[in-house]
Amino acid sequence: MTVYLNGAFMPIEEARVPVLDRGFIFGDGVYEVIPVYSRRAFRMAEHLKRLQHSLDGIKLPNPHSEREWTDILTEIIRRNDQEGRNQDQYLYLHITRGVAKRDHAFPNPPVQPTVFVLSNPLTTPSAEQLQRGIDCITVVDNRWLRCDIKAIALLPNVLLRQAAVEAGCAEAILIRDDAFLTEGAASNIFVAKNGTLLAPPKDNLMLPGITYDVILELAAANGIPHEVRKVTKAEVFGADELLLTSSTKEVLAITTLDGKPVGNGKPGAMFAKMHTLYQTFKRDVMRK
Ligand code: PDD
């Protein structure tokens, strides 16, 4: 596996970061995850735009232009396409404020940021997960108020996902202020009710998902009723269907919540529609 670290491509075993890196010490950095289909990065421009938003959010200048990012990502994709098999991949981009003496305030003068890029084979959900759907729990969203930043400091998300795993579930659905839906620990969540798709608004309390945008665009283009607005906790529990989206999970049906069936407990019509539209979009846009 070839990775990129601070200007050089190397085998992952050779990639080293000093212990005083602010990513290690403070979780002071941001990241992106980009799926790659048939050697093409999915929605690269949108991911790079969200990366810029995250960097702006932590006041860290972007170390690369869009052109430079594109070149780095293209090269990583090429180097990790084993034997030219066109295997799908996912890219992980990680930028920290760099290496400096431990002090909470930013290094002054600034130091070189650490830039790391990794590619892994993309494992999309199994046929069983698609057919049966997944189990989720609801948890209190106890994260900070800048969840729109894709920060590497993921301890709350890690603990919330672990709570789901310990309950035998795949994901935790986050409820803020005991009142409304935000997202999943590492995914966005949609509610389907009476044929309408409901999505929480992109604000400071959730990550603006790239897959989330694709789903809403597909709904709009295909005449599927949809509303972007605050979704209440009661609407989550009263849903006909719940859908989960992310770059690596694509679209999944959530069929149990806190141990009880969602709707009739089976992946429903909205899931079938959105999943088919997403797969068709992926095939038409990415593979041709
Ligand atoms: N996570 N919300 C959170 C908190 C996330 O971590 C993610 C994705 C999403 C979905 O965003 P997108 O559709 O752009 O992947 C929403 C990635 C996959 C991860 O951390 O591995």
Write the layout of secondary structure elements.
Layout (H helix, E strand, L loop, with lengths): L1 E4 L2 E4 L10 H5 L2 E9 L2 E2 L2 H14 L8 H14 L9 E8 L17 E8 L5 H6 L1 E7 L14 H12 L4 E6 L3 E5 L3 E6 L2 E4 L10 H12 L4 E3 L4 H5 L3 E6 L3 E8 L2 E2 L7 H18 L2
Parallel strand pairs: 7-8, 7-14, 11-12
Antiparallel strand pairs: 1-2, 1-6, 3-4, 3-5, 5-6, 8-9, 10-11, 10-13, 13-14, 14-15
Helix pairs in contact: 6-8
The structure holds N-(5'-phosphopyridoxyl)-D-alanine (PDD).
The site of N-(5'-phosphopyridoxyl)-D-alanine has 15 residues, from helix 6 and strand 13.
**Backbone shape:** globular
What is the CATH homology-level superfamily of the largest domain?
Answer: D-amino Acid Aminotransferase, subunit A, domain 2
Ligands bound, unique: N-(5'-phosphopyridoxyl)-D-alanine
Average pLDDT, rounded to a whole number, is 97
Q: Give the topology string: H per helix, E per strand.
A: EEHEEHHEEHEHEEEEHEHEEEH
Question: Any idea how many domains?
Answer: 2
Query: How many DSSP H or I helices?
Result: 8
Helix content: 25-40%
Distance between the termini: 27 Å
**Which structural class should the secondary elements be placed in?**
alpha+beta
**CATH topology value of the largest domain:** D-amino Acid Aminotransferase, Chain A, domain 2
